[in-house]
Amino acid sequence: MATTTDQTIFPPFTVTRAAIEQLTVLGGAVRIDIEDGGCCGTTYVFNQVHPAATEAADGTAYGCPGAWLIVSDAAANILPGATLDYSERVKPPRFRVINNPNTEHVCACRRSFGQPWPGPGQPTCRSYQPMPWDTTYDPPGQWKRRTGYEAPSPP
User: Fold this and answer.
1) Per-residue model confidence as pLDDT tens digits over 59-81
2) Fewer beta carbons below 10 Å: N end or C end of the chain?
């Protein structure tokens, strides 16, 4: 994977201006993947990476110098036709996948997909889980107790 090109490489999904701006703010590269978990069984996962890092090599790089989106092979199968957005209005501020035509069932917070949403108050809920690089957001106590969430230790 070459991330040193001066070309723009467009993904098979829409990336909003807010998401591009946040990629740039974060230093230029975010990896999107999927994993088991969340209310509906499968969850989108975002991690800040260096474009040349090993975790970036497992996937396809889209973007342009200063704003790379690394998409894992698993996420690449789910995202065509969707929209990647970033919102500071939702709590916690986060990337989110909206209007994904490939996921029939989606939880209310747009983090989990796959199986029918079982409703609010699930112990597997990730609605208030901050982005891995967000060290300032403190989720609501009730949500932390229900999910067993513990903030990661500072690096």
Assistant:
1) 888 887 677 888 999 999 999 99
2) C
